[in-house]
Structure formats: structure tokens, C-alpha cells
Amino acid sequence: MRLKVLIVDDEPAAIKYLLTIFQEYSKDFEIADIAQDGEEALKKIEKSEPDIVITDIKMPLCNGLDLVSKAKIKFPDIEYVLISGYKDFEYAQRAIREGVCDYVLKPIDVDSFVNLLNRLKEKIEKKYYDKQILLLKKIIADIKIDEKEIKKFLPWDKYFLCILREGGIPLKYSSKTKFINEINFETASEISPSKFENALYWQFFGRDDQELILITPDTGNKLTVVELFKKIFESKKDGGLYFTSVIVDYSFELFQLKDMLMKTLRFLDLNIVLGYTQIIHYNPNNSSSTLLSKESDINQREIEKKFSYYISNLMVESLEKELERVLDKLKEQKVPLIIVSSLFRNVIIFAAEQLNSEMKRYDIEYILDELISTSKRGGIMRAQKIKRSIAEVIALALVLIIYGIPFFFIFINSVKSKGEAASLDLSFPKQVLLIENYKSVLAEQDGVVVRAFINSTLITVFSVIVLVFVASMTGFIIQRRKNKTMTFISFLILIGLILPPSVVPTIWILKLLGLFKTLPGIVLIEVALGLPFATLLYSNFLSTIPQEIDESALIDGCNSYQLFFRIIFPLLKPVTATIVILSSISIYNDFVNPLYFLPGAENPTVQLTLYNFMSRYNTSWNLLFADVVLISIPPLILFIFFNRKIISGMVAGAIKA
Length: 657
Fold this sequence. Notes:
The protein is α/β, with parallel strands linked by helices. 58% of the residues lie in helices and 10% in strands. Residues 4-121 form the Response regulatory domain.
């Protein structure tokens, strides 16, 4: 869909510049007309009915602001963009009051202007979709519609229809079921426009929430339409139940929509086969489009006698088994569900007569609904439950093997004597030395482990604080300033995710700054290594925060610092929590960077204390494992209590709001 644009400007050079931008960068738009003053523009708006009006402010006869004020009265749905060389705040304020969607300053920045056009395109397409939905609702409800509206918003001559049904025929006595003639304005409120591989279609629920009705415009290629419906069918049929899809091999005009729905729904009901997934092509003009399957050869009288006997003797389990047996046979024979329903209706009536029960018609139909509903779901639900249980057991076993056994190995060896731990096996100790071993670890080299815990905590805390502020501000600038410079800077930052750090040059720089073997030096290293990933997370999350919030804050008088720290940063709590947790665990567990950039015994970290219990000729495996257990406790606690925040923050920017 190409959107129509009207350009209003009294300077030929400015018009030519705008035309060049549209020709080179925005081919989804067409220039409907050009006007050189406000009065001429008002006439051309009425004639061409553009989607967007781009107007200069200062023009003869009628300026841009007055033009918008007058045009808004008669054409409120048009999007208006003002272009001006005036930076005066009063102009911007009045433009906002008049309902202008954007205020562009000269000289026009091409990238920013193209981004504006793309935003307008999304906004206008949403308006079109909403209008299309409203018109479809009215057609289904037999409400009179203005022909002019149909030509503008539903310009296609003909349309195709497909109905996708999950499971069997709608239950007659379910509160969720609506009859064919009830698919009207109320039920059509479920209509939503969708795109599947760039093909437009509308979808809404039919008689219940297991029935989906799809409508798509006829664009001249019937094969494409059929492929579209088949792909949608394939994408939705993996839910466990069987599906029936009816594709109407006939395009129709809009006024025929409701009649076509009723015919197709009747055809669907005649051709649903219990437990059988199928796609059926239907042409309402072809008299051969009738019942596709055959009658059953099951002995109805025999079933009637068995059911009566089981019911009268309260043999529930036998009744269930017989029901499953009969239904399985009917599935094998691909008997239409409407015939299955008729068969069981007669069985229920016969059983009621034998038991002298005065059952009403709605009692019989209600029992039949429950019978068919239970039968079609019961086997699937049991199979799904078994599959889930098996999957859960396998997952639990894998977790125990991958994580449980190694941790048990470390802990059990940490409470052994030095000689027993040297065997490095899973055997239980002859004597548990829990307190003795852990005391020895904490007392090693005048409490080096305790000092290491303090150093690791300081490095982790300060690194995370600096990382959060630097990465959040960097991500904000990269996300909000869409130009070539920012793209290049973003590339330089994110390439850090790929390139490994260079140890020797980094040591040379740290020595030059006097930060080698110091805690501030290792903090800078950790921040630099964590910056690319944190910036990526912040940038993605910021894409979900509308830029209109920034503009509103600036109009209200916020400066850049107040905008970020008072408005934007509080909104970043989910992703900030994720970065804090992941970075804390990563920095705390870092072994390589302290080894290279913080060597020596002056400032040990927890990971480097492992060397205290290892040597070339003598290793105290029990104390080494005890140290590993102590080191593992803080990140383990952090992960157990905050793992949900990690996941929520990681996916928070995945879907743009």
C-alpha cells in the first residue's frame, strides 16, 4: 500500500529537495500533489485526499499553522508535518496544540526525515487496518456502509475465504458456542488484521474459540491465496487436536461475505471427520461439493444393548472402554462427525427408553456434547500428559547428571582427609572433617581467603556500578540517534563481542597509567570487557520505550541529564537487574583477568586463592574443594533468588511495544 503525500511550500528548491528524498529513500509513498500556499493546499487536500500533508510554515495567503488548523476541522485523519527554519519554542507549542504529528527544522536531515516517514507509515497503516476492521464488522452485521469508505479502505474487487476448525463440530449446548446467524457485529469484535509472509488477511473467531475465519483480498493470483491459507493452516495445526480447513475456491464480492460464511460453515460441519486432519477445497457454485465421507458399518443395535446394560448396572469403566473402542473404529473408517453424532444420539435415546427415563431433547443433546467433547480430547490429553512426564523425568535426570554429580563430587571430597581426597572418587569419607577443613581454608596464609572475598566484592560492586551507568547512557545515545556516525560507533562497541582482548598492550597501557596490579585497574578492565554485551541489552530494551516520551519531557523543560536520569533510567529497571546479576556473577568468577592484570599476593581474588592449595608436588585436594565450595556460595545464592529477573530482562527487548 502506497501512501499519498501532499507537499506545500512556496520555494521551488525546497519542493525539489523533498521530491528527491521521496524518490531516493521512500518509495512506499507517492506524491499526490504539490501546492505553493495554504489556500491552494486546502483545495488540493479536498481533491486528492492525501494521507500526509508536509507543509512549510511561512507562506503567502495562508501560513502552515493556519492551514493545519483549517484542514483539521474537515480532515482530522490526515497526518500533518510542519517544516520550518524557526527554532522559536512558540511555533512548536502552537504546532502541538493544532495536532501536528511532527515539527521538522531546516536544513532537513535526510536520515531523521526518512525515520519520521517510516514512523508515519506504521501509524497510518494501523489506522487503515482499524478502518478495514470496522467495515468488515459492519458487513457481517448487515449495517449499511458508505460506498466511498469501501473504495478507500477496501479497494479490492473480490475476496477469498478460509475456515480453520480445531476439533469437532461446535457443541450445541456450550455457553461458548454461537450459531451461524450470530456471527455478527459482536462476535466480529475479535477481527484482527494480520500479515503472513507480507500477505494481508483478516481473522476472527467463528461460532466458538476453536473456529478461525480468514479473509484475504483477491490480488489476482489464486495460487498465492491458496498457498497463504495452507501455510497458515500448517502454522496453527500443531496444537495436539485434529484440524479441518475449508478453502473456498471462489472469490466473491464484499456484500456476499455473510452468505458465503453461512454456506461454508454448513459445508465444514458436513465434512469434519473425527480425529482426522484435512484441507478441503470448496466451491459453492459446484453442486458436487457435498459430504465427502461414508456411512459407518458399525452395528448400532449391538451398541445400544451394550450401553443400556453398562448404564443400568453402573459399569462406568466398561462403558468408557466400549466408547473408546467404537470411536477408534469410527476414526479408522473416517466417518464424518455429524454421522457419529447421529449414531450416538440414537444410542442415548434407546438407552433412555430401556431405563424408562423421561429425558428431554436438550438432555440428550447435552450428553452427546459431553460425550463427543470428552472422547476427542481424552486420548490426546493422556498422550500429552505421558509425553510431558517423560520429558520432565529426562530433563531432571540431565540436570542431575550435568550439575548435581559434579557438585556432589566437590562437596564430598571437601569433607575428606587429605589422603582420601587424593583418590578423587565419589566414595563417602571414613570420617567427616567438615568444620576442620573449612576452618583450615579460612585460616590459610593469615586469612588470604577472607581478604580475597573482600577484594572480589569490591571489584564486582564498583565494576557493575560503572558498567551500568556507562552502558545505559551509551545504549541510549545509540538507540535515539539514528545516523551513520552512531551506526559506526555501535559497530566499534559491539565488535568487542567478537574480538578477544590483547593482554600485552593492555598491560603496557595500565603500567603507563600507573594502574597495573591495582584494584581500579582491574575494575576498568572488567568494565571494558562487559560494555559491548551490556550496551546491546540496553539498546534493545530502549527500542521498546517510545521516543515520544523524550519529546514530551523536553517540551516540559527537562534538560538532557534530567531526561535520562529522571525519565529514562527508571524505566530500565528490568534490563538493569539482568545486567547487574549476570555481570556480578561473571566478574566475581573471573579467573583470567586477575591472573594477568592483578598478579601477586597483595590483592588476591577468590579464584586465585585456589593456587594456595596446589603445588607441583603436593596438592591438598580436600582444602582445594572446600575453597571451591566457599567460592561458589555467593553466585549460587544470587542465581537462585534472581534467575527470573535474568530471563525477563534478557527477553524484555525482544518484542517491540
